[in-house]
Specification:
single chain; 4 helices
């Protein structure tokens, strides 16, 4: 009888609980968050590494090639060795009585020097040349690898939407501002400069940060083409200005579309040379 009573009063075995507890769900969500964060950080690290590579392996090496040309030829790129003007493409200079060094604010600047064609968005000038590679090889200057043999002046990369973009470098001399007037100025900066086309706004800001120490489209050696340093001729030594373009802009426009399928807009920058 006692055994029967014990069997009747014994608790039934508990059924194993199905699903996850709140603690388990919290752990799973935390792990998923860490994975997503690691992927996002990894993309940023990869993009920053690519921007640094463009700076070190392309822009810096073209600056070195420009300086090597000066050391070997004794004049800046495209200048005359018998009658130097200290101007890029100086042998094409026809202003100021065909002699530089006087009032240069009203002269007609010589054309740019590119290879095969002008860069995207560059304004054509009289005397533009497309023999950059020929000039460099003539004096034995080794150019950066660039995109390929014969395309050393270009470099291809992916924008933040995964679309290919092509950077191209050219060189030219720009007219200085005249006193009290911005008639001849289009924000190109005076003197011998490297023109860099095909930059996404994000890449331009990164290069500016690495070259000048801050991303400012108005000041420094690295600037955005078309932005006057004196704020339109009204404010000398105007404060700096952030790069106005954005990686949200669509290629060929300033639309703030932010579509993942869009090719990102590009800007042109100028990089002032030391010679």
């Amino acid at each position: 009888m006692n055994q029967v009573f014990k069997n009747l009063t014994r608790r039934p075995r508990s059924v194993r609980q199905q699903g996850f507890t709140l603690v388990e769900l919290a752990v799973v969500l935390a792990v998923i968050g860490l994975i997503i964060g690691a992927v996002a950080i990894g993309k940023d690290v990869q993009r920053n590494a690519e921007y640094t590579k463009i700076k070190n392996k392309f822009v810096d090496q073209w600056e070195q090639a420009y300086n090597q040309y000066y050391q070997r030829a004794g004049v800046v790129l495209g200048d005359s060795q018998t009658a130097p003007q200290n101007m890029v493409n100086g042998e094409q200079f026809v202003g100021g009585g065909a002699r530089s060094g006087r009032n240069m604010t009203t002269v007609t600047p010589p054309g740019a020097i590119c290879d095969k064609s002008l860069g995207q968005g560059m304004t054509a000038r009289a005397g533009d040349r497309t023999d950059l590679r020929t000039l460099m090889t003539r004096v034995g200057v080794r150019m950066p690898p660039g995109r390929a043999e014969g395309l050393e002046d270009r470099y291809v990369y992916l924008d933040t939407n995964g679309n290919p973009q092509e950077v191209q470098v050219c060189f030219q001399w720009n007219v200085p501002l005249s006193s009290g007037s911005a008639a001849n100025a289009v924000g190109d900066g005076a003197g011998n400069v490297m023109i860099i086309t095909g930059l996404t706004p994000d890449l331009a800001r990164a290069l500016d940060q690495m070259i000048d120490g801050k991303p400012d489209e108005r000041e420094g050696r690295f600037r955005r083409q078309g932005v006057l340093n004196n704020a339109g001729g009204t404010t000398p030594n105007a404060p700096g200005q952030e790069w106005q373009a954005s990686n949200r802009d669509q290629f060929g426009t300033s639309n703030d579309r932010a579509f993942d399928e869009d090719q990102i807009a590009i800007v042109t920058a100028i990089y002032r040379m030391n010679q």
